[in-house]
Design goal:
The structure is a homodimer. Chain A is built from 18 helices and 30 strands. In chain A, helix 10 links the parallel strand 12 and strand 13. Chain A is elongated and about 90 Å long.
Amino acid sequence: MPDTPRKDIIDVATGRRSADLVLKNARIVNVVSHEILEGDVAIFGDRIAGIGRYEADQTIDIKGRFLCPGLIDAHVHIESSMLCVPEFARVVVGCGTTAVIADPHEFANVMGTAGISYVLRTAKHGPIDVYVMLSSCVPASPLETAGAELTAEDLDPFLANPWVLGLAEMMNYPGVIAAAPDVLSKIDIAANRVVDGHAPGLVGRDLAAYAAAGIMSDHECTTAEEAAEKLRCGLFIMIREGSQTRNLEALVPLIRPETADRFMFCTDDKDVRDLMDEGHIDFAIRKAIRLGLDPILAVRLGSLNTARYFGLRGTGAILPGYQADIAVMEDLKDCRVTQVFRRGRLVAEDGHCTDPPISKEGVSSLRSSINVHNLDLLDYAIPAPDGTSADNPPRVHVIEALDNRIDTQRSIEPALVKNGQLIADPARDLAKMFVVERHRASGEIGRAFVRGFNLQAGAIAGSVAHDAHNLVAVGTNDADIHVAIQHVIYTHGGQVVVRDGRILADLPLPIAGLVTDQPAGLAAQKLRDLSEAARAIGCRFDQPFMALAFMSLSVIGQLKLTNQGLIDVDKFQPIPLVAGT
Amino acid sequence: MPDTPRKDIIDVATGRRSADLVLKNARIVNVVSHEILEGDVAIFGDRIAGIGRYEADQTIDIKGRFLCPGLIDAHVHIESSMLCVPEFARVVVGCGTTAVIADPHEFANVMGTAGISYVLRTAKHGPIDVYVMLSSCVPASPLETAGAELTAEDLDPFLANPWVLGLAEMMNYPGVIAAAPDVLSKIDIAANRVVDGHAPGLVGRDLAAYAAAGIMSDHECTTAEEAAEKLRCGLFIMIREGSQTRNLEALVPLIRPETADRFMFCTDDKDVRDLMDEGHIDFAIRKAIRLGLDPILAVRLGSLNTARYFGLRGTGAILPGYQADIAVMEDLKDCRVTQVFRRGRLVAEDGHCTDPPISKEGVSSLRSSINVHNLDLLDYAIPAPDGTSADNPPRVHVIEALDNRIDTQRSIEPALVKNGQLIADPARDLAKMFVVERHRASGEIGRAFVRGFNLQAGAIAGSVAHDAHNLVAVGTNDADIHVAIQHVIYTHGGQVVVRDGRILADLPLPIAGLVTDQPAGLAAQKLRDLSEAARAIGCRFDQPFMALAFMSLSVIGQLKLTNQGLIDVDKFQPIPLVAGT
């Protein structure tokens, strides 16, 4: 049901009643008829009433620019922007986005159902429609301790909320293929709604089983071949173009007019800097057009296709009776968004949200998420095993971190021993790494060595650490590691760079330890400062804190560290720090 | 939710459990990926589990033929087949149809909600899925007396039935455009479901208003221009290819790969002879391919597109987890359907349903629909007005019936007067026509003269008379008209040809006076006999009873006759028989 009474829309459409607003001299991208039409768009209340020739007290001259449907992100973790929900909305609405389908996977891993409720609640303070898919895999792995565990029974009540559309990416594809009862019961509760998938590299009978189970889409395709096979199995393909993972160039060649209705755009994870620098779904459209995709199809992948897939009736197109969500573009080449209307109201101009800054209650009403057992310097000591010494050092498993990758490799190295302790060895790029359980004050700490960060002094620490989001630190000495972890605790979560006991840069993330309560511009600046500070202590990674955030994700890579210790990911079990023990 | 447990389907898909049935050596028409793939299809329970290489105890060698999704009719009045619901299903399943979206408009006009329930109930005895859209315009016009009046309150409870998908063709487009409250309340109850349209020739702002009101489709387009404008307004286009109205040739050129997802096939009205002679949706596919439409798109218009439009999850394609509804075609040119599987079970071979004939309870459990005030010969007398005579005859309005048209023209003629009565004049092709109210025994009879049938003797009568379905007769003399009407009453509805007091041919239609309880072959033969008998008494019309059935539809044509008398359709009001009075 439209918010604006049906009768009023009809009266305006017929001309019996004048519109609230008419957009004049527009070129309208009709993603249904696959045409660009010239005309006026009459808006009444939150709806488009008619397209043709209309009059109203208020008119806006579009000057021949292109009216596109408001853009829709088919799958996004808002947490990855590091912004609170309404602030994220303010940023993306400037890019022409009027709706997103959010999976509050990180909030849910930290806060459980309270995290999902938080997104639903605070979304109402932003200038876009935020629909929610229920996080299907909390926790992501039994080998790390998250803040919550969500069963089908926990998720089910949310399906009564009209803003909740179904079950988010079912990452536990082994569980689906094994027909694990707890996994199938989650699919069951959402069986008449949308069930999103996540199955990197899945092929053959396993893929058939995954599709047959009721999974409807996938956003993990990295090659056209992979996407073609998933398409054949009936999965809708969400083409992901985020901060780290960018699949658009690989997948665009697969799109044919006959199959275009099965594709959508999503970002999955995109941080505030990239959103501000590049854009959002408009960026995917722009890039797809440059790669040769028909511009109207490109717009459709970012609007109507997503709306239809999610059953969002009356959105995703500029049509009579549809929600008046419109992104005005300068052209269909650079796709610069000049104005954005959401539910009939102008909400952004020249890339910036024109609504007043978000109010206090829009930002936060979530309890602190940090619950850590008292720590002292000795917690970061790693004693040398009996019988080892500086001259006879133990051989330890080392995590080999990689630049711009979320997986890892592994090696075995002799540790550096001093005064009965295993310590960092900057000369060999061996840093100490810790994962401190932060949800239940269990006192659990994982300890290991990592190579790749190239720290020559100090330490970095953060509370963003997929998917359990425990506290993670990498450093050259225990004192700086301790200061870094304590600072993150003090700010109720955040990211920090420390050298010689001093904070070089920080970004407090008081909301679930995941996102800031500050405006986007400030957050972006602080992120840049963090990167620079990390470089100042030697880090060579392009995105040091992105690398840090994936060091404890125990489902991808060869070797990871969680609060339960080192994890051999292939064997999916813990292994001791010292090799061969 | 599939009927077959999700776990079992997954187990079969992975190969852990063997399938019930494997279709071997098939060419599979994948309407999602727009490809034809070679492989096996594994079926378990009512579902397709996987596509690839599979084994089972039971295998069927498809011998390289084409597996198409089971076909779906997007909009059909089953009553127009003149068959009861399960018998209709038996006929169309032989054509590859495994589901239809039925609008029980005629049953509803005669029997009200009992007519809708009758379709839902008896559908379970046939071999296809019959989904129901709720008849939106009962009665169709205030100028004829139907058997029921259905308000939003009457229709609303049906929406709880999972086989009910929404609101059927909203023919009262003037009511929509005028924002009439009773019309909008019907749209309101179905606002989150499907709302079908019916708006012949509607353009411009009125069309925008119709779309803005929430109408989602149209099946009345007769030209590509009309369909293009409706597409632009966001309406889905159902391409109709029925017995009388055939729009496929005009509309196929409009279909482009980019817009193909907005088109579907429907028959609307197709009688048993045409279904048996030509086919059903397979006929539309065959014809569309001959007209140049891509064969895979043609199949998709008859399957997946309709399933998606109506939200029929897991149907309309041959994909893992989908309902195992499959039409095997010899090729994608003549599209001869050799086998049909519905929910995993073989239900038709070589054009014929292989299920046992329908049982008694499948046919009928509806009370008699004929409720007529006692009639005698004098009821058919039309006295000459005072002051008129054979030499000074009154001038009367005459309905000019047209061959293969449902509209009419009008003229004014001097009546033939004999013994103070206005009588038929076969020499001038002026027959007497009567419409007898048959629902409420009101005794109302409409009387008029009609030209076009060219009856030289006898009379024809029937109880199928859109949309109110009163009794209608055309004849050359009162005695034969009386016998014809009495015979229709005696058979609880039907169609009959009478000459010299003798029944030349008849087809009893005891179910609501609309459809037969007999098998399709017998019904088709009786229809042919009726046509022949009508020709024997002089009728030159291609389809005499089709012409008869539209003589009292008071919303189309220039002049019609209802139980309330002659209706000037343009002025939408009754006019007297004698001109100028």
